[in-house]
Amino acid sequence: MKVYLVTYDLHVKGQNYTDLLAKIKENAAWARLSESSYAIGTEKTPQQLYDYLNINLDSNDQLYIVTITKPYIGRGAKEVNDWLENNLPSSYHW
Predict the structure, then answer these.
(1) What is the pLDDT along the chain (94 residues), one digit of tens a residue?
(2) Is residue 92 included in any domain, yes or no?
(3) Is 22 part of any domain?
(4) What is the DSSP letter of 56?
(5) Nearest alpha-carbon partner for 80 in 8, 28, 32, 29
(6) Full-model pTM
(7) What is the CATH number of the domain that holds 21?
(8) Domain range spanning residue 76?
């Protein structure tokens, strides 16, 4: 499983927002990092995930898909930190 940071900025919250969140949460493995960013575990490539999430967005909306791996650093809710620790692959071996 690969893990991606999905971050977005929608020009107008509405149906596009609801549709995007539903698509994000269809993935079995996900954690909400902040109001408009999620970590998503999937077998899709970044392009496949982008195409899947982008389909209902407007041309003035923003959407980025970024591969994330360990090591990482951050601060947030314990359940999010635990999710990252348990799901992020290592970018290199020690």
Answers:
(1) 899 999 999 887 666 788 899 999 998 899 999 999 999 999 999 999 999 999 878 888 999 999 999 999 999 999 999 999 999 998 765 4
(2) no
(3) yes
(4) T
(5) 32
(6) 0.88
(7) 3.30.70.240
(8) 2-87
Please give the single-letter amino acid code of residue 73. I
Place of tokens 């990252």: 84
Domain assignment present for 28: yes
- Amino acid, res. 37: S
Reading the block at residue 24, the tokens are 């994000």
Structure tokens at 1: 């499983």
Specify the number of domains making up the chain.
1
Residue 55: DSSP 8-state: T
- In the chain, the amino acid numbered 65 is I
Between CA 29 and CA 42 the distance in angstroms is 7
- Report how far residue 30's alpha carbon sits from residue 79's, in angstroms, rounded to the nearest whole number: 11
CA distances from 40 to 5, 11, 45, 83 (A): 7, 22, 12, 10
What are the tokens at 48? 């496949």
